[in-house]
Amino acid sequence: MTPSWFSVLFLACTPVGTGDTAGTGTGSSLGTATDAVFVSASAQGSSPTEIDLQGEVTGQGRACVSAGTRQSCATVSGAFSLYLAGLLPDTAYDLSLSLGGVEVWTGSASTLVSQGAFSVLFDRDHGEQAGNADWVIDDDYPDPDPSSPGSETAWNGAYSSFGYDLWSTGRYTVASTSGELSQDALSGVDVLVLPEPNTPLSAAEQAAVVAFVAAGGGLFYISDHDGADRDGDGHTAVDIGQSLLAAVGCLTTIDATNVDQYQADNINPDAGDPVVGGSFGPVAELGFFAAATLSVTGDSSTASSAVVGLVWRNGYDQAAIELLAARERVGAGRVVIIGDSSPADDGTAAYGNQVYDSWHDQNNAAFFLNATAWLAGDPGS
Asked: How far out from the chain centre does Cα 97 lie?
C-alpha cells in the first residue's frame, strides 16, 4: 500500500504573531493557541499501527494529536512530529491537533497495510498432484521460489495464480506444506487450503485440523466430483471431505455427485456478502467442470444462522440442497467449501499434466480470493 499523505491549506487561520500556513489536502484550521502560533500540519501512516503527524509552529507550546481515544502529546517548537501508536492496520482515522488545549487542525490519514499480515498454507501432501492434477502454488516448497516474483508465471503450478494474487496484495504470505498436518505445522497459520486431496488425512492430521478450526482458523476445502480417484487408492476429495467436515462440526456436507455448470449464475444476491461481494470484486458467475454438489444437514434453524449458501445449480431454489459453494462459521472458526477444483486452475502445470485456465475466466479468481480473505478475517476484505 502506498502511504497516503494528507496536508492542509489553512486560509482562515489568524495567527498570534507571524507565520504562513502551507500545504493542500483534506483538513481545516479551527483556531490557534496563545503560547504558540500554528503554521501547518500533515499526516501519514508510518507503519501498520502508527500514524505520523508532522507540523510546524512558531514559538513553543504543548501539542496533542488525537484519533478517537488515542492521543499523543509533547512540548513542541518549530518543525515537529507526533506519533499515534497502537492503531489498526489499513484503517482510516480522523485526526485532531490541538495547541495549548485549542484545536487548530483536523485531518485524516490511514495506517499502512500490514505486509504479510495473514498466513495462507496450501496443502500439497495428500495427492494434490496425482494424475492430471497439479493443485500446488509452486514446485518449490515450503516457500515458493522466487520469494518476490515479478508475475504469476514466476511460480510453477496450476494454483500459482491463486497464490501469487494473494501474495501480490502485500497482505498475505503463502507457503506449502512439507509433511504431515500437525499442530506445529498449523501454528501461526490463518487459512489452510486443502485443494482436492486424494489421500485421506490420518487420524492425527484430522485432529490437528479440527483443533485449528476450533481455535479460530479458516479452512478452505476444495472438492471435486464423485469418482475423481486420481491415484487409484479408492478415495476421492468427496469422501475425504465428508469425513473431515463432519469432524470439524460443519453442517455442510459434500454429495457423491458429478455435475457440470459451465455458467453458474445462481449466486447469493447479497451484494454485501464478503465472498460474493468482497474487495477482490463481485461474483456474478462461476464455471464448474464436473463438480460435486453440497447439502446442508442438521437443524434448519441452526443451519440458517451458521451456513451461508454462495452458489447453487442453475434452475434450483436457493435452499439447503444443490449448492455448489457455501461458507460456514463453526464456533470461532470459518470454513468455505466449493465442489470443484477447476475454477482455481490457471492452466500452468508440470509437463504432461492436462490443465486448463479457468482462473482468468468469469469471476472465478474473485471468488477464491474473497473466500480466502473472509477465512483470514482480513479487515481489508
From this structure: 33
Q: What is the mean pLDDT of residues 352-374?
A: 90
The CATH number that domain 6-110 falls under is 2.60.40
Q: Which pLDDT tens digit goes with each residue over 133-183?
A: 899 999 999 999 999 999 999 999 999 999 999 999 888 999 999 999 999
Q: Which CATH superfamily is domain 118-376 in?
A: Class I glutamine amidotransferase (GATase) domain (3.40.50.880)
Q: In this structure, are residues 157 and 134 in contact, taking their beta carbons and an 8 Å threshold?
A: yes
Enumerate residues 6+ apart whose C-beta is below 8 A from 301: none
Q: Label residue 8 by pLDDT band (50, 70, 90).
A: very low
* Residues pairing with 98 in the sheet: 64, 103
Q: Where are the domains of the chain?
A: 6-110, 118-376
Domains 6-110 and 118-376 alike in fold: no
pLDDT band at 88; cut points 50, 70, 90: confident
pTM score, whole prediction = 0.73
Beta bridge pairs of residue 110: 92
Query: Which residues 6+ apart lie within 8 Å of 234 measured at CB?
Result: none
Residue carrying the nine cell digits 501469487 = 164
Triad 255, 159, 184: Cα angle to 5°: 80
